[in-house]
Design brief:
This protein is mainly alpha-helical. It folds into 2 domains: 105 residues, no CATH class; 192 residues, Cytochrome P450 (Cytochrome p450), CATH 1.10.630.10. It contains 16 helices and 2 strands.
Length: 335
């Protein structure tokens, strides 16, 4: 290990030979020329790494740790990879064209900025990827991290914490007895949705189904998770319901929006056209305020007497020992 460290340190002294290579006395070299030499060397080695790396720049790092057999794929542009190839047309068609051009049907490696990506056009290979534990982690977008989803079941890294959340959800949120116990609430949500659809059809002659489906789904989730339902089918109804719908819409927009900094992290300091960072910073306090108030109400009321008819928040509050979650984790899970 000591020999490896010394070799790495000694190998860095090559940068001081660059001025001599360009015909300049090293001892009398001015700083701007030295910086220019370093910049040229950096760009040169970056271009060499890009040319010699199938799949692009993101796949050039740590090749020896992942194996010596390269996965074929387009190199893309030196900094952006194949990012612009995906935005020119429908992504699945662009990927099919790239795969055909590279002759990489079973597996194709490509880069989206600094993000390494792999795509399979073979059903057997895709099935193996989806079932292999090496691919069990989910990519964490910057907006998801800012919105506390790093500790939620949908984005938490594979490990003991994620397995705990999955076990609690499968045993208490999606168990057959609990699903059956919440059947009356779902029927009430469906009846309210159908009434709202009929009323809109009478007034306007046509109906936009999406908002009605979203309202019914939101009410169903609120009933199962928090044990409360709102009059969401009435525009301008309860103030808390309107605030909740606005927060959910904003959260979905932030999670679904394309964010350049997810693939070009250095760009976030200069370019954020969707104002993702500012919008996330404004949304998080609203989320904390709403969920914290509901948690406080549940702690005052105590758990539901009917165990199967209790909500998911009651379950989280009843956990103890190593399974007990702190309040920040509960907010992330419930939100």
């Amino acid at each position: 290990m000591a020999l490896s460290t010394r070799t790495t340190t000694d190998s860095n002294w090559w940068v001081f030979t660059l001025p001599a290579f360009f015909g300049v006395d090293t001892l009398h070299c001015d700083l701007p020329l030295l910086l220019l030499s370093l910049f040229i060397a950096f760009v040169s080695f970056g271009l060499i790494a890009w040319v010699l790396s199938p799949g692009g720049r993101a796949w050039s790092h740590g090749r020896a740790r992942r194996g010596t057999v390269p996965i074929p794929g387009p190199r893309g542009l030196p900094v952006f990879g194949s990012l612009f190839s995906l935005v020119r047309s429908l992504p699945h068609r662009a990927l099919a064209e790239l795969s055909a051009a590279a002759g990489a049907k079973p597996l194709m490696a490509f880069s989206i900025g600094s993000t390494p990506a792999v795509v399979s056009s073979d059903p057997a290979v895709a099935r193996e990827i989806l079932s292999h534990p090496a691919f069990s982690d989910r990519p964490l977008k910057r907006s998801a991290r800012e919105l506390m989803f790093a500790r939620a079941i949908g984005f938490a890294p594979s490990g003991s914490y994620w397995r705990l959340l999955r076990r609690v959800a499968s045993a208490h949120l999606f168990s057959p007895r609990r699903v059956a116990a919440h059947e009356p609430g779902r029927q009430a949500d469906c009846s309210a949705m159908l009434s709202a659809i009929a009323a809109e059809q009478r007034l306007a002659g046509c109906v936009r189904l999406r908002p009605h489906l979203q309202n019914a789904a939101l009410n169903n989730i609120m009933g199962s998770v928090f044990g409360r339902r709102y009059e969401v089918s009435v525009p301008g109804g309860e103030q808390e319901a309107e605030e909740l719908k606005a927060m959910v819409r904003e959260g979905f927009d932030l999670l679904g929006a394309f964010n350049w900094s997810d693939h070009l992290p250095w760009l976030v300091q200069f370019y954020d056209p969707a104002n993702v960072k500012k919008r996330c910073a404004a949304l998080v306090p609203r989320i904390r305020s709403l969920v914290t108030s509901i948690i406080a109400e549940h702690r005052l009321q105590g758990p539901s007497r009917e165990q199967d008819n209790g909500d998911f928040l009651d379950v989280l509050l009843s956990l103890d020992g190593h399974e007990k979650l702190d309040e920040d984790d509960m907010i992330a899970v419930l939100w």
